[in-house]
Amino acid sequence: MHRQTAAYLHLPPDADLPDLGNRPPFLAIVLAEDDVAEMWLWDVARWLVASGARYVQAWGKDADAWTEAVDDAALEAVDYDDAPDERRVLVTSHAPDDEDIDEVFWFAKHRAAHPVLPLDAVLIVHVADAPRKEPIEAAYTDA
Fold first, then answer.
1. Which of 20, 37, 53, 70 could be a cystine partner for 45, CB 3.0 to 4.6 Å?
2. CA distances (Å), 45 to each of 61, 68, 111, in order?
3. Total domains in the fold of the chain
4. Which phi and psi angles does 126 have, rounded to 5°?
């Protein structure tokens, strides 16, 4: 498995969430650099699941809270019943003290896999006041 490219999306804290359109199931990498309101974090988690994220890697501030929110959003999406395999959402949490972003990107490109779905598309969701599109895309490309 080797995902070559990723789309970058900058989300300032508390921003409106864009329509991601009709996309195939994808892997999302949430880079949380800023503090966010808890309700917005949960809204983003629901939005990711509803948009087709089937694997979410959370890195940065409150990475555990992000994974908890995505886990709950995935359960909510199937009315807290057992999710069919194609709707199962995998999540991983990555603390900046333990892993550099380069390691998270490498794992996303070379190892992250869903048990039944191909996840060829990657969306990097950068939660920060200011965008850093070029350096983040370069880091992903180099991973």
1. 70
2. 15, 9, 23
3. 1
4. -100, 105
